Amino acid sequence: xxxxxxxxxxxxxxxxxxxxxxxxxxxxxxxxxxxxxxxxxxxxxxxxxxxxxxxxxxxxxxxxxxxxxxxxxxxxxxxxxxxxxxxxxxxxxxxxxxxxxxxxxxxxxxxxxxxxxxxxxxxxxxxxxxxxxxxxxxxxxxxxxxxxxxxxxxxxxxxxxxxxxxxxxxxxxxxxxxxxxxxxxxxxxxxxxxxxxxxxxxxxxxxxxxxxxxxxxxxxxxxxxxxxxxxxxxxxxxxxxxxxxxxxxxxxxxxxxxxxxxxxxxxxxxxxxxxxxxxxxxxxxxxxxxxxxxxxxxxxxxxxxxxxxxxxxxxxxxxxxxxxxxxxxxxxxxxxxxxxxxxxxxxxxxxxxxxxxxxxxxxxxxxxxxxxxxxxxxxxxxxxxxxxxxxxxxxxxxxxxxxxxxxxxxxxxxxxxxxxxxxxxxxxxxxxxxxxxxxxxxxxxxxxxxxxxxxxxxxxxxxxxxxxxxx
Length: 471
Fold this sequence. Notes:
It is a single chain. By secondary structure, the protein is mostly helical. It has one domain (4-27, 122-468). It has 18 helices and four strands. It has helices spanning 4-20, 29-40, 63-66, 105-117, 123-144, 161-166, 172-191, 198-214, 218-233, 237-261, 276-285, 287-296, 307-321, 328-352, 366-369, 372-377, 385-411, 432-452; strands at 57-62, 92-97, 463-464, 467-468. A hairpin with a 2-residue loop joins strand 3 and strand 4. It is globular.
C-alpha cells in the first residue's frame, strides 16, 4: 500500500461487503450486535435467565435490533434475507444475547461510535463501524509491508473469500483476524531484519494483546505467532518482555473478567458424551470440512463461495509463491505453523467436548492461517512483475466473483436471477446491484493502482527474504 487513495479504496471495498450482506447475515451477528448496543448503553453484563444456557444475558436494546429473526433464511441459501427486516422500529426491549459475558472491549469499540454519531437501532451502522475498524487495520498491515515491494503482493494470498466476508460483518473473530495479520506482518519485518527495535516488538505484541482482550480464543493464534517468531527471530530477553508482556497482561484481564461474570461454559444442547479419544478422532475427521469453511464459508455454515472463486484465489497464491524455496529454519517454521493449524482445533475440541461438544468452525483458524504471509516472505523469494500481476488479477476475480455470489444469495437466493431482478434493498442506502457495481469499480481501481506500483523502477523490493537486498 503506497498511498492514502489506495488505503481509502481498501476501506471502501470492505464497506461494500458490509452493506451487501443481508441483515444479520454474519455468523452469530445478532448476538454481537445486541452485545455492542448494550455495552454502549452502559450495560456490561446484563441479567441471567433460568430459561437460557450459560453465557446468555438479558440486556436492554433498541427494539428494532431484537426483531427480524435471521432464522427465517440462515439455513436455507435459497431464501432471501428480506424476511429478517425488523417488525418493530421504535422503543426499547429486553432481549437475550449469547455473547452476554464476552469481554466488552470489542463491543465498546463498535457500539460507542454508533451511539455517538449513528443510529443505535440500525444494524448497518454497527456493520459500518466494525468493517471500517477492520479495514483500517488491514491498511496498516499493507503499509507495513511496503519495504517488500512486489514480493509483498503475496499478502493477497491470505485474503480468501471467507476473509472478506468475515471482516465485513459484526463479529470479534473478524477483528481478531486483522489484528493477528498485523502481528504476522511484524514478524515478517523482524525476521527479514528490516526492524528489530523495541518499537518493532510493540508492533507485534500490541495487536496480539488487543486481540486476546477482545476475543480470548485469540490466545491460540497468538501462541502460533510468537512461536514462529521465537524459531525465526531469536529475540533477546529484553525484547521478549515486550513481546510476551502485553499478551500476558491481556490474558490476566480476561481471567479477571471471567471471575467477575462467574464464567461457566456449557451447553447441554450440543455437549458430547463420548470418550476423549473419540472426540479427538472426530475432530481429525472433520478437518477437511474445517479447511473448506476456513477458505470458503460465507454465512451460517450453510453457504460457501463457488468453486471457481476458490480456485482463482488458490491460483493467485500459487503465482505469488511458486518460486518459494524455504531453508531449514523456514521448513521448521512451516512445520510448526502446520502443526498448530491442525492441532489447535483438535485440542480445543477435546477440551470442550463434554461441555460444549464439537463447535470449532473454520473461521476460528483464519488468524493462524494468515501466517502463511510471514512464512513465505521470511524466506528468499523473488516475485517477477508478471507473477505479481497474475496474482493481483486472480485475487481481483476471486473477490468480485465471491461478492457477487454473496449478494445474490442474500438478495434473491441461489436460485434467483444473476442480475438480481426484483431484489429487495439490502440496506437503507443502496440496492444490491448498485453495491455490486461499486464493488467491481473499486476492485478495478485498486488492482490498477497496485499494478502501477509494479512498473520498472517503481516497486523494487527493498527487503527480500531474511536480509536487506538493494537492487
